[in-house]
Design a protein that fits this description.
It is a single chain. The protein is of the alpha/beta class and 253 residues long. The chain has a single domain (6-248), classed as Metal-dependent hydrolases (TIM Barrel). Helix content is 35%, strand content 16%. The longest helix has 16 residues, at 233-248. The radius of gyration is 17 Å and the shape is globular. The mean pLDDT is 93.
Length: 253
């Protein structure tokens, strides 16, 4: 069914051995590296991006432990306060972290008012890009700042049909978009992916979004099959691996 290598550009590891903070009263169930490996056992996933959730705040210990267990094909996407020293950022980069996340949707990350300052600083230091968990209806208020950032990724296809028209101009300017969390979106995801890919075949990044915290349903292999069945082989390969490898630059590809 799936015979080509895949890079999972969006996954979460939730380890209750490390501190978690309730987000609007929500705490996810444990989802260990072993749980993740079991879930993807039928798929040829050979690397991925482990993403910090709102409930993990600024803690780095869980992420570093997960990356060590998963191996050098995996990278991290973390959340940091604006006050983080340069040497801490450099150390995280050396440990495999490749991006900083701002969670506009659920909070738990640094305030969006630090987006420009922190986004530019981490790029200058270690070439990290910025990842945004944001409803695309909110994008117009961020356009001025986003256009100043060297590299931006928007999670979960921007979530919103009403805001999708604001996402496409960002793609035209070079933003990437995660083809993840399909059940979170209130629109036809295949149509949306085709529109994005038509603008820039290098824009889409497939990810499982496991364990799909707070989503209406969890990832299922047919989500991946939707891409494999409806895009030419070269574009599907780009969405499922090559675009992410070019962006995240894992130690092992």
């Amino acid at each position: 069914m799936f015979d080509k290598p895949i890079f999972d550009a969006h996954l979460h590891i939730i380890d209750h051995q490390f501190p978690l903070q309730p987000n609007y009263g929500y705490l996810p169930a444990n989802f260990s590296v072993a749980d993740y490996r079991q879930k993807i056992a039928s798929l040829p996933i050979q690397g991925g991006a482990v993403v910090s959730g709102s409930f993990q705040g600024f803690d780095q210990a869980w992420l570093l432990a997960a990356l060590k267990q998963l191996g050098p094909g995996y990278v991290g996407v973390t959340q940091l306060p604006a006050s983080t020293p340069d040497d801490t950022i450099i150390a995280l980069h050396e440990a495999g972290v490749r991006a900083i996340r701002f969670n506009v949707q659920h909070g738990g990350a640094e305030s969006i008012r630090f987006l420009e300052q922190l986004g530019l600083r981490v790029y200058d230091l270690v070439k990290w890009h910025v990842e945004l968990y944001v409803d695309s209806r909110q994008l117009p208020g961020l356009f001025t700042t986003l256009h100043k950032l060297p590299a931006v990724v928007v999670d979960h296809l921007g979530l919103s049909k009403a805001g999708f028209k604001y996402l496409l101009p960002l793609v035209e300017k070079g933003a990437r978009v995660k083809a993840t969390g399909f059940s979170r979106c209130d629109f036809d995801v295949l149509t949306a992916m085709k529109q994005i890919s038509a603008i820039n075949p290098g824009a889409l990044l497939f990810g499982t979004d496991l364990p799909s915290t707070r989503a209406p349903r969890t990832f299922v292999p047919t989500d991946l099959q939707l891409i494999l069945d409806h895009f030419p082989d070269n574009i599907a390969a780009a969405i499922c691996r090559e675009n992410a490898l070019a962006l995240y630059q894992p130690t092992v590809q």
